């Protein structure tokens, strides 16, 4: 009697679990849709599952970060370069000066906009699916934090960890930006010296120098 009832209950639980497994594939299965599909396959999957707007999901956080970052980066470079020249009149104006000014400017831009970069990174791992359910692109866990947007992410991080939470992990970014930013401006100014004087203000030479400088700095 008791053993039969327990056996029937166990078989019912097994059937329910099997049915749920068929309906809700695990996160690894979802990630497998993108793994190994290549660039074209990933574009196709995103378009089929989310439509054209899927290609721009999370772009708001990227724009909110890159606009002030780029503005501060180039403004700080020009200002630091001018301050160095005024403070050290005998310093040689050349690529070395650009290397120093560019490195300091890159660090200034990172420190000033890192909270936005942190928010962008956190939101990039989230995906809003139909049914108003938020899941992570990584392994979805019940305890995982889900954010509703940029402001919600900033408020949540500040409420949980204070100001230091908005700057957590900044050190590796600084380690990378100092040499990258300095070398980028160094190569940019160095290559401009090889451009004929009458073409130095043209857009195409500037774009070409900037592209190669960014590549070499990276």
TrEMBL record:
InterPro entries, sorted: MCP (IPR002067), MCP_dom_sf (IPR023395), MCP_transmembrane (IPR018108)
A GO cellular-component term linked to this record: membrane
Membrane-protein topology: Multi-pass membrane protein
Organism encoding this protein: Aegilops tauschii subsp. strangulata (Goatgrass)
SUPFAM superfamilies cross-referenced by the UniProt entry: Mitochondrial carrier
Solcar repeat start-end pairs: 11-83, 93-194
Subcellular location(s) per record: Membrane
Family classification: Belongs to the mitochondrial carrier (TC 2.A.29) family.
Keyword Transport appears in the UniProt entry: yes
Biased composition (Basic and acidic residues): 21-33
One Pfam entry name: Mito_carr
Region (Disordered): 14-33
Protein name, entry field: Uncharacterized protein
Keywords: Membrane, Repeat, Transmembrane, Transport
């Amino acid at each position: 009697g008791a053993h039969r009832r327990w056996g029937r209950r166990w078989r019912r639980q097994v059937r329910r679990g099997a049915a749920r497994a068929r309906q809700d594939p695990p996160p690894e299965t979802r990630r497998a849709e993108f793994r190994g599909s290549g660039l074209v396959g990933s574009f196709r999957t995103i378009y089929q599952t989310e439509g054209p707007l899927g290609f721009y999901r999370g772009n708001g956080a990227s724009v909110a970060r890159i606009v002030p970052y780029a503005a501060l980066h180039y403004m700080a470079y020009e200002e630091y370069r001018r301050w160095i020249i005024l403070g050290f009149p005998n310093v040689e104006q050349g690529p070395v000066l650009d290397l120093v000014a560019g490195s300091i400017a890159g660090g200034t831009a990172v420190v000033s906009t890192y909270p936005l970069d942190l928010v962008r990174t956190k939101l990039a791992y989230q995906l809003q699916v139909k049914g108003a359910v938020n899941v992570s692109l990584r392994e979805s866990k019940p305890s995982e934090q889900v954010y509703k947007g940029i402001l919600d992410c900033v408020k949540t991080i500040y409420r949980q960890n204070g100001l230091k939470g908005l700057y957590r992990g900044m050190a590796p970014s600084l380690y990378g930006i100092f040499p990258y930013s300095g070398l980028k401006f160094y190569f940019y100014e160095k290559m401009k010296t090889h451009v004929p004087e009458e073409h130095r203000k043209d857009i195409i030479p500037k774009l070409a120098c900037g592209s190669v400088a960014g590549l070499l700095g990276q």
